[in-house]
Amino acid sequence: MIVGEASEVFINPGVVHQYDYASLLRGFNMPDRVIITIGTKKGLFVAQAPKSRRSFALNGPAGAGVAVYATLIDKRGTPRLYASSCNPFFGMKVLRSTDLGKKFNETKSAPTFPKDDGRALANIWSLEPGYDKKDLFCGVEPASLFRSSDGGDSWEMVPGISNHEHARKWQPGNGGLCMHTILRDGNRLHLGISTGGHYLSEDGGQTFTAANQGVGAGFTPDPYPEFGQCVHKIASHPAAPGRLYMQNHGGWAEWSGPGGPRPDIGVLRSDDHGKTWRSIAKGLPSDFGFPIVVHPHDPDTVYVVPLAGMTRTCPNGAPAVWRSENGGGSWKRLARGMPKKDSYFTVLRDAMDIDDLRSPALYFGTTTGQLWIGREGGEEWSCLFDSLPPIHCVKVAVV
Question: Is a pLDDT exceeding 70 seen at residue 23?
Fold first, then answer.
């Protein structure tokens, strides 16, 4: 079933024109393009630009009117784009494009629980490449892991985590009981679950162990439980084996309930494959936030978007990305080009990414429908699109 072929626009900041999509791409006349997939409350948009990133072509929405919470730009072989399509009335779908987003088709099936399982698929939160060329991993709600060996046409549940002894004890966070992070590191597999915590497999996904030593929780009597933390996102870099960065659910520095205040539990680092964690939140205006991203060429450079814990919006109405260039030892505010006041949007856990060009650019989408680009590693910001539907996820790749 073809689910989306849509009109395209050519974007130069402040100027919007209609163009023929295929002619525009031929006009780029270069092999590499920057591809951005933008999952929104009302469908999927795909933006493309030459490596200069001076102007972007926008295509979409595919799956119009249906929320998209996860996308994947799969560069193994011929590039393929994947997206979840989460319709509360007609069920969950996985969409696939083989032409860089000009049109999408539904795969032959989506993940589904066995009939006697008792759980029902509510959402698809993550799509990631697996071990072989056509392998895919999919994290869903309620928190479970599925795997496909044929590019998304069939799926099987991964029992080592989906039927883990803790699985029926996890509780939903504000966004649901979601498996939102899947990171592969050789034979290791890291999973982030809200609210379940961080789980680690060291045998390719056969078995999993809760690995949350040093990961705090502000909403449980025990400030450091074995599992049940509201992990928001986990990131890594292949040049730093064993190192992980985590954006956890912070914002508990002034907590006055049982157990007392729990400061600096929101931004964490591990140097032993996630077995133990330590805080790197000092110097940030808030340790609450959702996304965390690592520089593609430097594992010591990491980015977060601090938010006010109570409102989950920009602190004092002034948005900024914060960057550390020493692995979390210190932080710098990056906001040149952003509004200086009266901006109260949220950036969700999968709504920030970074390309891997020589001088990378960051991209983040907001719950108020803006897509921002931060050139020179976030030094200079401008708004690419300002009137999209609320943005759930942003992924970028150079293809």
Answer: no
